[in-house]
Amino acid sequence: MNLYGLIVFHHVAASGSVTRAAEILRISQPAVTAHVRNMAAELGLTLLAPKGRGILLTEAGARVAKHAAKLFALQNEISRDLELYRSGEAGELRIAATSLPANFLLPEQLVSFRAACPAVHVSMQTLNASDALGALQHYKADIAVIGGGGESRPGLERKLLQEDELWFVVAANHRYAGKRLAFAALMKEPFIMREPGSAARERLLSLCRVQGMSLPREALQVSGVHESLHAAAAGLGVSFVSSLEASRAVSRGELARVEVEGVELRNPIVLYTREGEAPPPAAQHFIQVILKQVEVLV
């Protein structure tokens, strides 16, 4: 059955006029008549009867008109839904993020986004850097936001959003709390290490290589920044974290910084998208929200 023919028939039935249906559809009267005639022939039923200068629906025509009206309503519903999707006001937004942006950067942007697009379903996975990029590559996320810069991967594009400092922090009563010392001296302390694949772990290991130092002794391995901060506050060892992550605990006196001579590290926060592929409209809208609210460095 020709679905467009049903739409044509709906307008004929609803307006009671072939002429009016042609005007609404912006096609010729003979084209409207041909669609109705072809449908009647396909169904093997008489759909219209003459009525002076107008038309009259037969019983079969009235039944077809009822179904055609539903099809027309569905067509309009599809158009409205896709228009909302196209504008980014409907659909789904799937974010894969490391702990830093997931906890200290993106929530503020999500508040603004939700106010503008309440119909969008938003989900955010907090993963280590490697897993977050994998989720983006395998279409399990629409964007990835990585603290620590992350790695370059084929098929992914990067945009630097902002940078903060990387700090070494210890319990407030640690012997090095608030002190300044050499990197070699700090490396003799036990460390709270993040899990393999995390950006913080990779940055610390890279720093050790640059300084020509062996890896620090591991007091504990954890899989999240909150666990790392709590373990440091409990006195288990040194934690290497973003200033955004640790600043509140430091200001409350739960943790203290250890400044290291000759070591000043910046922590990039990077947005990843799939190369050569436009993100879904909702994700595009959210990216614009992010770019408006953070200092874009590149």
Order of helices and strands: HHHEEHEHHEHEEEHEHEHEHEEH
> So, the CATH homologous superfamily of the largest domain?
Periplasmic binding protein-like II
Low confidence ranges: none
Total domain count: 3
CATH architecture label of the largest domain? 3-Layer(aba) Sandwich
* Overall mean pLDDT: 90
CATH topology call of the largest domain: D-Maltodextrin-Binding Protein, domain 2
Number of strands: 12
Distance between the termini: 55 Å
- Summing up helix and strand content along with how strands pair, one would put the structural category as alpha/beta
Backbone shape: rod-shaped
What gyration radius follows from the Cα positions, in whole Å?
31 Å
> What is the CATH class designation of the largest domain?
Alpha Beta
| Main sheet specs | 10 strands, mixed
How much helicity do the residues have?
40-55%
Assembly context of the chains: single chain
Total of helices: 12
Proportion in β-strands = 15-25%
